[in-house]
Amino acid sequence: MSRAIAGPEIERLIQLLARLPGLGPRSARRAALHLVKKREQLLGPLADAMVTARERIVTCTTCGNIDTSDPCSICRDARRDDGLIVVVADVSDLWALERSGAVAGRYHVLGGVLSALDGVRPEHLTLDALVARAADPAVKEVILALNATVDGQTTAHFITDLLTHLPVKVTKLAHGVPVGGELDYLDDGTLAAAIRQRTGF
Questions:
Q1: Digit-coded pLDDT (tens) for 26-40
Q2: β-pair partners for 105
Q3: Cα–Cα dist 23/30, whole Å
Q4: Long-range contacts of range 122-127, CB-CB < 8 Å, 24 or more positions apart?
Q5: What is the pLDDT of residues 78-132, one digit of tens each?
Q6: DSSP three-state, residue 99
Q7: HSE (side-chain half, CA atoms, 13 Å) at 189
Q8: What is the SS3 assignment for 41?
Q9: What is the C-alpha separation between 175 and 177, in angstroms, rounded?
Q10: Residue 87 near residue 153, CB atoms below 8 Å
């Protein structure tokens, strides 16, 4: 049984940090120690920022993004292509696509993917809102930017079936060899997908 090495307040900080993705108990202890050592420069401003975030962050009722305003800054951006909706499972996927700068359309966050094992059913996702948005005559294409997992692909097929009655083009992300990837280091599934989805040179 591990013993506490600091007061309960610091132990509580470590426990909370350890819940963050990518931080285990050891990393959380290092992060907590760094924050405590830099109380004035880091801990105080971080605590203030977290309180402000808790009070001001909302979920966009249009797309499902999180921001400090509703509708979010992406939905308010008039330069975006209203004819393109990019469907993602989670806000983290939306942010990843935004970082890439590859998409200039609108987004729709499902709030997860269908999963029999996890008990995620269609009614748990924002599928009705997606169908309503895709029914807008301005929408020409829906890109399914979902993970290449069994649950992600099951969700993509389910959405495709939901949108068949609408005059929209439904596309998905290509899967295969990443830019800079070496064939020898790729898994069999990625290589097989790359061969199936080969394009002209």
A1: 999 999 999 999 999
A2: 81
A3: 10
A4: 122/158, 125/155, 126/64, 127/158, 127/159, 127/162
A5: 999 999 999 999 999 999 999 988 889 999 999 999 999 999 999 999 999 999 9
A6: helix
A7: 4
A8: helix
A9: 7
A10: no
Residue whose structure tokens are 């069999």: 188
Max Cα distance, the chain (Å)? 64
Only one residue has tokens 């709030």, namely 111
Q: Strand ranges (DSSP E) for 23-65?
A: 58-59
Contacts of 194 (CB under 8 A, 6+ apart): 175, 176, 177, 186
In this structure, what token pair is assigned to residue 136?
A: 């807008």
**Is residue 97 within 8 Å of 103, Cβ to Cβ?**
yes
Dig out the tokens for 189 from the structure. 């599934």
String of b and e for 70-107 (b: at least 16 CB within 10 Å)? eebebbeeeeeeeebbbbbbbbebbeebeeeeebebbb
Structure tokens belonging to residue 137: 């005559």
